[in-house]
Amino acid sequence: MRRILDTFYRGLMGGAALSMLAAFGCVMLSIVDRQLAWGLRGLDAYAGYAIAAALFLALPGTLQCGEHIRVTLLLQAVPARWRGALENWSLLAALTLCAALAVFAVRLVWVSYTTQDISQGSDATPLWVPQLSMALGCAGLAIAFADALWSRWQGRTFLAEPAAQPASME
């Protein structure tokens, strides 16, 4: 199961990387389009969709790498016997919120698909297509929090410590 989840997280991170490349490509194509007057439509919207996809698809992988912002000041201030309970509560609360967000994101995709909702821009993109990456990223984040909570209960580590930042040259 561990290998399947790690592959899932890496796959979503790969999708996020491809989305960033797609956003870069759309922006560059938009610049060329303005210079050559090709009249390509919707490139700004597609760049925005790609950036949003990159953000949501990267959520589970960045959680696994320990790169999400965490408030450790409180955890360091409480006694050790409270620290574990506080971390368990935090992971359970995050799982609950992310699961709810995932359910509503999936419902949004379904409603957009069944009502054939399209973007208001000149490209008239079916909205369920870009919304799909949001739903997948939110579901992946909920799975990652469930994985983190389960790992914690099993006595294993899930959240990696963020990489140490190099000292500034002041």
Give your account of this protein's structure.
73% of the residues lie in helices and 0% in strands. With 170 residues, the protein is mostly helical. It has one domain. α1 runs antiparallel to α5 and α4 runs antiparallel to α5. The longest helix has 35 residues. The chain is elongated. It starts with a helix and ends in a 17-residue tail after the last helix. The model has no long low-confidence stretch (mean pLDDT 87).
Radius of gyration: 20 Å
Rounded mean pLDDT is 87
User: For the terminal residues, how far apart are their CA atoms?
Assistant: 47 Å
Q: Give the topology string: H per helix, E per strand.
A: HHHHH
Query: How many domains make up the coordinates?
Result: 1
Task: Tell me what portion of residues adopts beta-strand conformation.
Answer: under 5%
Q: Which structural class do the helices and strands define?
A: mainly alpha
Tell me the major beta sheet: none
* SS elements, strand count: 0
What proportion of the residues is helical, as a percent range? Answer: over 70%
What low-confidence regions span 5 or more consecutive residues with pLDDT below 50? none
Q: What is the overall silhouette?
A: elongated
Which oligomeric state applies?
single chain
- In DSSP terms (H or I, runs of 4 or more residues), the helix count works out at 5
